[in-house]
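Good day; I would like, with your permission, to put a structural problem before you. What I wish to show you is a protein chain and, alongside it, a tokenised description of its three-dimensional fold. Here, with my thanks, is the record as I have it:
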Amino acid sequence: MIQIARVATARRPLACVVSVMGGWLRRFRWLYAPRAVDFGFALRTTIAALLALVLALWMEMDDPQWAAMTTWIVAQNSRGQSMSKARWRLLGTVCGAVAGVALIAALPQSSWLFFPVLAVWVGICCGLATFLRNFHSYALVLMAFTSGLIALNAADDPRDVFAIAMSRSTYIFLGILCESGLASVFAPNLADVAHREITRRVAAAVGQAAQALTGMMAGQDSGFLRSRTLLGSVFSISDQIEFSEVEMQHRTHAGDHARAALAAVAVVMSRGLGLAARIREAGGVPPAFATPLATAKALFADMLGLMDGPDPVAAVPGLRARIRMLGAECRQQLVNDIIAVSGPVPMDAAGSQVHLDGYILNASLGVLLVRLDAALAHLAATRTAPVHDHFHFSTPPWRDRTDAWHNGVRSAGAVLVGGLVWEVTGWPDGPTFAMFVVVTCSRFAANENPVQDSLGFLRGAVWAVVVAAFLTFVVLPRQAVWETLVASLFVPMMVGGLALRDARTVGTAAPYNNFLPFMVYPGNQSRLDELTFFNTNSAVVLGIWCSVLVFRLVLPFDQDAERWRMRRQMVGDLRRIARAPAIPDTGAWVNTLTARFARLVRHSVSMSDAQTNAYLDGVLAAMTVGLNLIRLRRMLDRGSLPPDARQAVEHTIAGFAAWRGQPPAGLAHTAGDALACVRARVATEGNLSRRLDLGWSVAYLEILVRELVAHARFFDITHRFHVLPDSRPTGPGMNPYQPEGAIHDHQTPAT
């Protein structure tokens, strides 16, 4: 036994070494065992980049490496992404070329005026890019650094600015043409595939919503977690649908129906969260709601399986028929409850409350089913459009003016620093240094976290220098024809292409692929010598490093500050909902809060689980409060409430209109008084229609009171909101962050 123990002990270090080696090898699986689709992408893009390079050499272009760089820049994971990026890159290049020529024409040989004007121009472009999504933002960014590249290249000799602008546009066009032409060969039946992909994505979102609703109706935490995941991914799914539309060349309105379906799914999730909280608030399922609830659970479970099936659209008619039947059942039960409490014999308070809960729950489920039916209708329309379909639906991006201001100031500061270094040092490669300061700050200024993203850009540039040094000094001097040049660049580009398809290396691989042709600097009549290689590439790396430094020092990205600003914005939005002359649209409100929710999810990597849960619950609470404020305003607008109940609700709305983010205890007390008034009025109301409206008002006010009390710390924007890691996550309607010790609250007033 002792010998066996010794042998086992001796084998433990070996097992640890094997385990470590296995984990290390798995990290590089993308290189030695790539997926077929990743290998195809790398091979296709490498061939396209080398083809663009050879054509540029054959055409005797001055800087042929830019054509190969463009090919790698526009190559994306999907064909739609590549086509969209190529289109907006071409537009941004043309507009940037015009701006670059205009800058040089207006300010020839006036460096101390040229750089401030260039900084302001770059700052405006980067600030406006913050308001756009996808490659629409990329076009503005490209305008900024294309104009900078052209202007800085022509700074020493302004007479060459037009030729530089034309050559720059030619490189871009050649690179895009090669990438698009080769990609189209490997993507047959692109429109049909994209059409099916749109339907598949929407069906998957509807199935996830059904799965989340199943868990929420059963009171399971998994349902709430799935609803968070779905809300956090709605915008990324919408972005992918836009790229599929590009692949389809916008021949149908399938993309519009898909976005409308996703918007309906987001509303269904918000309704589901409110319904689940209302069930929990009731303390039990009222008798009139038991049958509709059981039917709804069965419906959602079946819907999940059908949406995951081979043909989800074929199941839509049957599902919609079941939804309509369940909706009719909810309405019947609702009427039964209203009639029960309207009889000649007065009912006691407990019985009246049970019936009130019953018809509120049935009405809530009925509204949820209406939105779910709309999502299924739009899902079916993604495949077979209605006759004379002119449907259009868009989701406007969330605009953060503070973020845009920071991006603009940060970018302008980086350009000024680059110009100052060039002017003060007189460095012969100063234009290259300033050029890549402009490129880097423009490329990443509009990103949510530019410091983290630009660090990957810097790592990729360093790797490109290392590989380019080996090629320049060891391989290329012995070659004299383009065939051997292509053979030398093939393997390094293939490695970069494979790394571009792995999530862990994409941040480094993208700049590596972009910079490798530039740092090798192939030409027809010359080879790169050691001094030029060192000076040029050191200027590139130092320019990128300077931008990273500016990102760290000038208005640096701060997650705590961003989350606090987001909380202040949400409280301000709630105040605007209460006081706006026109009643806001619920879909627009859900869209805005979903965008903030998705942004928090993207930044949750560096947050503890408890802190993530606290902020996500807070955003959902703000969404719920806003929706119910809108519904209360619509109830007032109908004019169906009795005078005393109307006055109580108006007093609550006025409280929200005057709210400045102070602790919401007083506001919750006001809403609680209105709730007591309306609840008492329900029992004495004889008109059935008015009783139903009073019941809706009770439901809305109950949710307001619950959310304001449960998330009081989150809505109090006079102090920072921090959660210790030992806080306990729970479902909606309960506040796990309220107990003493769960919250670390800086007692410093907000400024």
Q: What stands out?
A: The chain has 27 helices and two strands. The two ends are 71 Å apart (CA to CA).
